[in-house]
Amino acid sequence: MHPLQTELADMAALSLKIEGAVAHLVLNRPEALNTLNTAFWQELPKALRAIGATADIRALIISSTGKHFTAGMDLNVFAGLNGPEFQLEASRRAEMIRRWVLELQACFNLLEEIRIPVLMAVQGGCIGGGIDMIAAADCRYATEDAFFTIKEIDLAMTADLGTLQRLPTLMPQGVVRELAYTGRKFNAQEAMRHGLINEVYSDHDTMIESVMAIAQTIAGHSPMAIHGTKEMLNYARDNTVAEGLRYAATWQSGMFHAHEVLEAMSASFEKRAPVFENLQPNIAKITR
Hints:
Ech1-like; alpha/beta; Crotonase/enoyl-CoA hydratase family protein
């Protein structure tokens, strides 16, 4: 068993599998429709930091169990907002809620910040906070029965964990606005047509098998090159072309080394799989 599985064995909302250089994180509360409960918000960042700090993990899949990927935020997470600790002077209550939302946002931000690609595999409903989560991933896949809803509008809320910021970079503005204003369901085929979903599969098992094959292909490439590619794509999304090009030049000046290029070329010539060194583990993990 991989040491990471032992380290994260006590999770209640999630479970972890390791296949070669691919980590597979699974939402594991099907009886509760995998709602995003307090345990989830505590365990997801812990798991992502541990996976991202581990040298021999090169890709991450996040999938789910049961009928639905997730029914969204567990309403018990909101229960405390009316508790005595929130009965404060108005400005202090506002500051406390703002800080609370930022902490929740930070959990999904880690999906972008982690140095390996994150692939989401969605079945059934992906509702509310589920869209916030998958929008922060690198790639998204779905079963034919999958559907999506920006549910917050039906709860008299403005979505605040990333959907409204990330979805317009993945789908047309007009489509995102319609979906956010109406809260209507849209299915996997529509999601793929508009660019949210990479591919649609007939069933859950076929999807997981196919996504695992994609992840294993990613894991076979230079982890430094993959890390750099993710870094450049995220930076390019949020900056101008000129700024992105300058950052790419700076990155290459520090990160490019010919020995991995030569290994890739030699492996191609010799018709074998290339062998690349792992990235270094996170220093914080070494010293802890």
